[in-house]
Design goal:
Layout (H helix, E strand, L loop, with lengths): L1 H16 L6 H18 L4 E2 H19 L8 H25 L2 H27 L3 H4 L20 H8 L2 H5 L4 H18 L2 H17 L6 H19 L1 H8 L3 H13 L4 H16 L24 H9 L1 H15 L12 H14 L13 H10 L4 E3 L3
Antiparallel strand pairs: 1-2
Length: about 400
């Protein structure tokens, strides 16, 4: 049974970390089967605080969903997304923590991140050579005007989690692979044009240098030197590069600077203003109701600015309850953030997804919820009390 579960979890890891949202139905099936197999197998215990946190979230979401008859047709989907899926990730995370040591799990995740980066570069090459139909297997609407920067892919959400963990990941690979990893990550960030990914990668670099100011690894130093030379080369030959690849570097830089100024772009900036107005007007929550800016004309209650949208939906008081429950589980780890502990991989990953949730709705996707719930499981104190068998 354990081998069967492990194979399922590797498949699930590939689906949610390398091809998130590309094969959503198979992802859901593998996740449910994995969860049921783990529960049937037994032999593990669950942290009661995490289950309580899940219970609080599920109760809040269910009450607000039932209170909204306008979108009742979406109730089964929303219930799975906000209640069932988090439970699955908690069960899976508990199994991983109980069965494997921290280093083995982190090394597996880091290895998968290599393939996540590789998938971006391979798909960009395929798109550049006109194989759009293959790229569309992984995302419905890529940038089909080839050789354009800002290449759209869901996997950037995964890379946000790994970008901030630059320090931990560079400790796991041999020197040569560290150099390759860093350079490929830089190329991927450049292709993505995603401000959130750039921001978390910069945070990861800063964290690494703060932590290792007097003890920088030689492979990382080589990577940084190569990056500087690459950057100088791009600046010196940028016109030739623009002409050869039919791209506009100055426009690319200007677009990303504008996104930073406008908190993620003009649409997100407008959402932020109007959602804040709605929070002030309805401090106890609006439920799953749309406000002025419509992002999705089918599910009109969806917004990119997820943290503010959550406060608007459930109210300030309810959000404080959710936040307090979260802090009670993982808050004690913050004091260890500048200590060389394996838990920091999960803590930094959790911080990265929470920061990116201010401008991206990643946690509303089943394929990205592992970035929130697995860190919670691994960061919780090991005071397990409950068993399903």
């Amino acid at each position: 049974m354990e081998k069967f579960i492990n194979v399922l979890l590797i498949i699930l890891g590939v689906l949610v970390m390398i091809f998130p949202n590309a094969f959503l139905n198979p992802t859901i099936v593998v996740m449910i089967v994995s969860t049921l197999a783990i529960i049937v197998r037994g032999k593990i215990h669950y942290n009661y605080k995490i289950l309580l946190f899940w219970g609080v979230l599920s109760t809040i979401f269910t009450c607000y969903m039932l209170g909204n008859t306008k979108y009742s047709s979406f109730f089964p989907e929303l219930f799975f997304k906000y209640c069932a899926s988090p439970f699955c990730w908690i069960v899976i995370g508990t199994y991983l923590r109980s069965t494997f040591n921290y280093e083995k799990v982190i090394k597996l995740f880091a290895t998968i991140s290599f393939f996540s980066i590789g998938s971006v570069i391979v798909l960009y090459i395929l798109m550049s050579f006109g194989y759009i139909s293959i790229v569309k297997l992984f995302i419905a609407n890529p940038n089909i005007d080839t050789n354009k920067l800002g290449f759209t892919l869901h996997v950037y959400g995964t890379l946000i989690f790994f970008a901030i963990n630059f320090k931990t990941i560079t400790q796991l690979f041999p020197k040569f692979l560290v150099v390759v990893y860093v350079l490929l990550f830089i190329v991927t960030i450049f292709l993505s044009g995603r401000t959130a990914l750039i921001f978390t990668f910069v945070l990861g670099i800063l964290y690494y240098f703060i932590f290792n100011f007097f003890n920088i690894k030689k492979s990382v130093a080589i990577s940084m030197i190569l990056m500087v030379f690459l950057f100088i080369g791009l600046l010196y030959n940028y016109k030739a590069i623009e002409d050869y690849f039919s791209i506009d570097l100055s426009r690319y830089i200007e677009t990303n600077l504008n996104k930073v100024k406008e908190s993620g772009g003009e649409e997100r900036s407008q959402q932020t203003k109007q959602i804040i107005d709605a929070i002030i007007e309805y401090p106890y929550g609006t439920g799953f109701e749309e406000v002025f800016i419509i992002r999705d004309y089918t599910k009109r209650f969806n917004y990119e600015v997820l943290i503010l949208a959550t406060i608007m939906r459930f109210g300030i008081f309810t959000f404080i309850i959710i936040l307090s429950s979260l802090i009670s589980i993982v808050g004690w780890n913050i004091r260890n953030i500048f200590k060389d502990k394996s838990e920091n991989f999960w803590l930094l990953g959790l911080i990265s997804i929470l920061l990116s949730s201010f401008t991206n709705p990643y946690l509303e996707s089943i394929a990205f919820q592992w970035m929130f719930f697995l860190p919670i499981v691994f960061l919780a104190k090991n005071n397990v009390k409950i068993s399903f068998r």
